[in-house]
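Chapter review. Work through the record for tRNA-2-methylthio-N(6)-dimethylallyladenosine synthase before attempting the end-of-chapter questions.
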Amino acid sequence: MKYKVITWGCQMNVHDSEVISGMLEKMGYVPAEGIKDADILILNTCSVRETAEQKVYGRLGQLKPLKQNKPNMIIAITGCMIQQPHVVDFIKDKYPFVDIIFGIHNVSKLPQLIETVNYSNYTIVETIENETWLEEGLPYLREDNIKAWVTITYGCNNFCTYCIVPYVRGRERSRKPADIINEVKSLAEKGVKEINLLGQNVNSYGKDLLDERITFAQLLYELNKIKGIERIRFTTSHPKDLSNELIFAMRDLEKICEHIHLPIQAGSNKILKLMNRNYTREHYLELIQKLRDEIPEIAISTDIIVGFPGETEEDFLDTLDIVQKVQYDQAFMFMYSKRKGTPAAEMENQVEEEVKKDRLERLMKLQDSISAKKNEQMKEKLVEVLVEGYSKKDKGKLTGRTRTNKIVNFKGSESLIGQLVMVKIVEPHTFSLFGELYNFQGG
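Structure tokens for tRNA-2-methylthio-N(6)-dimethylallyladenosine synthase:
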């Protein structure tokens, strides 16, 4: 029996798909080369933007003839989308050939759900979850033996007015530090060199752990001690919870990479308030200055939304201004997308699509020029690169990342994959760097 998992969305979803794959392999399934070869197909969905949901509906439409030709094939759908009742109802109505709809927190029930399909003639729905309970010890299948995602929190308490995440992933729950430490130790024993700690807001880790008082910075100190792990990253950080303690930990701990993803979302205080972000542009700029004072070589990336309800040209110019002031290494930029059930979807003064598109183009043009300039400054520099494998765009080159999260491509032998090497940057590009192998320091 063969399986296929298709994933949309963020790193959290990628990690969730690793757990789903682990569950299926424990049940005896093996990976299918393609969708048509699969006996069970699972779609792991995203609901952050409407375009992500439309991609899922498009894929479901494509699957209808396959299901007709292969009626015993099981099609299941999970992820953030199906935590919304109206989406579940829509799928049951428009795509009745879907066999299972299950919440990502119900993944431990997957064997029973698959078994139930064998004697039912209707769509099985299992989306009820106990938000206060986290199940540990589930198997997972990681395709990458060099880097690993490690979830430290689930859900979110921030309720930004544009965001659906707290409604679909629930309130914030922190994993126990011992469970996280044990998972990372296990990864180190398997040869993993880099871990990336995941949470909607990693900075608030531990605030809900009443029995074990621990901060995110204190967790980093514990993880930094684990032998075999060479690099530690984390995402995402909320500016309102970025403490001096965390900044000092990033400065002092040798395994913490010199990079932070710190979403600004907008440069206008008026828009930040409407978004319920709970910080001002002035406070954000103070944080940037603190980070650069303590960690001069730090790279900073961000998320920005344009066209939020009520955003005027003046508000947008504030966003361009803060991008110019901060000089981000990288930015993920999006047009505002209405999400049903969020306060922003009901706000007045929705911005016209053409205005959103124009602002996004202007923002991207500015950020691309900054990214290119930042990368140009890397020319002739020696950087440490963790080699991840062959480049997808050029199979003749190896690819990896610097500690500051910049992609570097260079020529080298397969034996370097998984190792730390020094590379001299010879040709900077806007989104990546090309270099030459300098020497080999790994073992």
